[in-house]
Inverse folding.
């Protein structure tokens, strides 16, 4: 019996994702409460690492921090990771499913469970929480309920290629309508195999975001390096988020995902040894050759 090529490619992608998780996340993941062994243990470890990876993508936090926010365990109410970002005033809730074969998605049952879990978070029903969830929520919940503007992002992450079923989409839409009656409190983010793999490969390749920028009141210096400066409209910057997404604009291959990369080492070296050159070498924007105001730079 011939296996479909697409299925083989999907399995290759899953292995690549798993290799990435083993290197960057699994060393930080606590498995002391898991009694399973062998392949089942490794699948459980991968699932927890996947939840941590999702937090790193959507909340822009360090791998070690996201691993410490894993809540998967007994009485977790399908909440596998939880993180409150004080700067963004946002509560991130993750439900993760690891599919070794690269097939599958998030089930309706798991979706309904995590929705019920969020209800319990809103009600601060911590008596119903297991040890891991309670430990993380005791801190995050105090910040969430003490906020005047906090939002919630529910992230459903899985290594399959199938889209969410109609029933799952309906359940999510119904719950969003319920909680967003007054304001946009809850949003839903789905990360599947394709997005996970693209995120990893983009980081490995250092794939840039190309932008055309209208620079007002610009000027140029030539020493110690050629550099341009000027003003950009805030509305233009806001449009970058719409066109490229937060994850692409603030991609972690520079700061988060590859903490031991040559890029980070060079940034640190410049800051400590040549701070006067830091602005020129690490301002976050690379300018290609183009004509500006009749001047070729």
């Amino acid at each position: 019996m011939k296996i479909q090529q697409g299925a083989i490619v999907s399995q290759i992608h899953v292995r690549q994702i798993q290799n990435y998780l083993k290197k960057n996340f699994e060393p930080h993941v606590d498995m002391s409460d898991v009694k399973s062994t062998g392949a089942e243990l490794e699948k459980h470890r991968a699932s927890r690492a996947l939840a941590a990876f999702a937090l790193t993508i959507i909340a822009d936090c360090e791998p070690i921090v996201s691993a410490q926010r894993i809540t998967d365990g007994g009485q977790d109410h399908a909440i596998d990771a939880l993180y409150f970002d004080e700067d963004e005033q946002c509560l991130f809730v993750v439900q993760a499913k690891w599919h070794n074969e690269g097939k599958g998605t998030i089930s309706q049952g798991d979706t309904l469970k995590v929705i019920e879990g969020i209800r319990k978070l809103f009600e601060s029903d911590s008596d119903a929480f297991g040890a891991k969830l309670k430990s993380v929520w005791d801190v995050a919940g105090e910040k969430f309920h003490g906020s005047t503007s906090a939002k919630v992002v529910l992230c459903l992450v899985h290594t399959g290629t199938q889209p969410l079923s109609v029933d799952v989409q309906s359940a999510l839409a119904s719950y969003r309508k319920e909680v967003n009656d007054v304001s946009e409190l809850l949003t839903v983010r789905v990360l599947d195999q394709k997005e996970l793999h693209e995120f990893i490969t983009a980081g490995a390749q250092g794939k840039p975001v190309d932008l055309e920028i209208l620079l007002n009141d610009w000027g140029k210096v030539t020493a110690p390096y050629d550099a341009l400066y000027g003003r950009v409209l805030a509305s233009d910057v806001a449009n970058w988020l719409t066109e490229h997404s937060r994850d692409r604009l603030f991609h972690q291959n520079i700061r988060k995902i590859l903490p031991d990369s040559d890029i980070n080492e060079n940034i640190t070296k410049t800051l400590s040894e040549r701070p006067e050159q830091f602005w020129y070498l690490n301002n976050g924007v690379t300018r290609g050759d183009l004509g500006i105001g009749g001047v070729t730079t």
Remarks:
- The mean pLDDT is 85.
- The chain is about 45% helix and 15% strand.
